[in-house]
Amino acid sequence: MTLDERFTRDFRETRGDQPLGTRNEIVTGPVSDWATDFSHLEPEWAADPYPIQDDLRQRCPIAHTDRFGGGWLPTSYEDVAAIAYDTERFSSRSIIMSNFRPPRELAPVGGTPPISSDPPFHHDARKLLLPVFTKKEVARREEATRALCHSLIDAFEGRQDVDAAHEYAQHIPMRVIADMLGFPQEDGPRFREFIENALEGVNRPPEERMERMALLFDYLLAQIRDHVDNPRDDLTTYLINAELYGRKLEPSHVAGTMALLLIAGIDTTWSAIGASLWHLAKTPADRRRLVAEPELLPTAMEEFLRAYAPVTMARLVKEDMHWNGVDMKSEDWVLLSFPAANRDPAQFEQADEVVIDREVNRHVAFGLGIHRCVGSHLARMELRVALEVWLERIPEFTLQDPAAVTWAAGQVRGPRTLPLRVAYA
Amino acid sequence: MKVQIDPQRCHGHGRCYTLAPALFGEDDEGYGQVIGDSAVSPDQEHAARLAVSNCPERAIDLVEEA
């Protein structure tokens, strides 16, 4: 019996009340020119976006595409930072560039607050989450995370061939966020489907994407109802009880924030752990140095975050405007590539090299400004512990076959298959 | 020398209190705070410079005392 009336109706019923968004023709296939036709969903980008971004930064620093109904790709640090700070002219109403723009009426809340929110609402929605994600607060989860990392290695110890993306990296954030939200651990495989749809399935027909998204919200509603009946000390109960402006949150706010934490909390950290292990597998000198000097890991880890920043965000242009030499139209997408900003030679010395003892490192892997990744302290804890445990247990490892490594396409990029040959300590 | 955080620029990345924990702490929302009287002793100077040069928001300044 669910007593909280906010959650008695199905989200599918309430969705019918909302205005429709706009769709555009879906264009896929090989890119003709990255300056005028870019697509971060194509295999060439997924395999290695850095040469593409470096080339664009030199010859066309703000690239354009007619795909996705029109969008821009700035590749310099300066432009990426300027847009991240300019919440007046660039909206976060949708932060995944796709073939569907949600209705303007969705602002300033957006579907998954606070990442999808604009000021002034953003500040208040974010404030609810900040205390739960401080460095001090996430440190309480370090011991359990370390034990989890060990148990994952225990499960394959003795085997020479291991898929580090599949058997190690992905499980760490999945388990941590499931524990934080109070979801059953065995639901992990379902989370993967939800994430894959939200982030990689961008070029599927919008109807199909919405139906899959509805499955996610069905799942979240079931979890919410279970928590209303059986409150516990976790984030779901916290959000159900949270208040804003003297009232409990709207049901769509509770579920939208849960969707955000589930989707943004897993793929991103999985990618960061995987990319770091991929780098160490193909760079024996760095691997040996970190095994010999574990105290260097916190510095090295920041360099992996700079060089292999997993996350690209998106914005929507609010009004027609001339911006840094290009004519942006209202409702154009802007792909906010933190990975491209992090490799801008105007901002970083030896920008295209991985320097694991880099002392000056103002990288923007977690974004800039008011939307700084709210989970950054959690992500850093998970990444550090994952690498510490791996290097302690598996000091020697190489890529079985560099060509066998596969990378996720879209706005969160990291290895999805990472076959390693390993030797245990 | 003294350290300062510009609260308008700080967005809680936490690089300062990670790299220079003797000089910076975090508040209940994760924003950086200068600890104590903000004076930087000679043995903390390197840590202070690291905090300055790793803050993505450029929110930290190291100022000579007048």
From TrEMBL, chain A:
Keyword annotations from UniProtKB, A to Z? Heme, Iron, Metal-binding, Monooxygenase, Oxidoreductase
InterPro entries from the UniProt entry: Cyt_P450 (IPR001128), Cyt_P450_B (IPR002397), Cyt_P450_CS (IPR017972), Cyt_P450_sf (IPR036396)
Q: Name one GO molecular function term.
A: oxidoreductase activity, acting on paired donors, with incorporation or reduction of molecular oxygen
Membrane among the record's keywords? no
Matching entries from SUPFAM superfamilies are given as:
Cytochrome P450
* Region Disordered, annotated ranges: 1-24
Establish whether keyword Iron is in the entry.
Answer: yes
Q: What residue spans carry the Basic and acidic residues bias annotation?
A: 1-16
Spell out the family assignment given in the record's similarity comment.
Belongs to the cytochrome P450 family.
Record protein name field: Cytochrome P450
From TrEMBL, chain B:
Q: Which UniProt keywords apply?
A: 3Fe-4S, Electron transport, Iron, Iron-sulfur, Metal-binding, Transport
Q: Which GO terms describe its molecular function?
A: 3 iron, 4 sulfur cluster binding; metal ion binding
InterPro entries, alphabetically? Fe-S_cluster_ET
* UniProt key word Metal-binding: yes
What highest taxon heads this organism's lineage?
Bacteria
Cell inner membrane: is it a keyword of this entry? no
Question: What cofactor does this chain's UniProt record say it requires?
Answer: [3Fe-4S] cluster
Q: What is this protein called?
A: Ferredoxin
Q: Which organism is it from?
A: Planotetraspora phitsanulokensis
